[in-house]
């Protein structure tokens, strides 16, 4: 699915803690913020380059990777 998945904690230990992530997929670099189970994509957003079913699959994978990363 994606390569070079990276997660960085923002505002660690504070009430507005969230996670910034990045990954490479099909030669495109994507990133965003994961907060309260929701993904907010940075530009370019995957739906600009991928079909809807691929975006859903990508979001599911990102959610799984982040929750695994958080332990």
Rg calculated over all Cα atoms: 12 Å
Total beta strands: 4
Number of helices: 1
Strand content: 35-45%
**Class from secondary-structure proportions:** alpha+beta
Physical arrangement of strands within the biggest beta sheet:
1-2-3-4
Key attributes of the depicted protein:
elongated, 71 residues, alpha+beta, 27% helix, 4-stranded antiparallel β-sheet, 1 helix, 39% strand, single chain
In short:
This protein is 27% helix and 39% strand. By secondary structure, it is an alpha+beta fold.
How would you describe the overall organization of this protein?
- The protein has 71 residues and is an alpha+beta fold.
- The protein is built from one helix and four strands.
- It has one helix at 52-70; strands at 3-10, 18-25, 28-35, 38-41.
- The protein has a four-stranded antiparallel sheet, with helices on one face.
- A hairpin with a 2-residue loop joins strand 2 (18-25) and strand 3.
- The longest helix is centred in the last third of the chain and has 19 residues, at 52-70.
- The protein starts with a strand and ends with a helix.
- The model has no long low-confidence stretch (mean pLDDT 85).
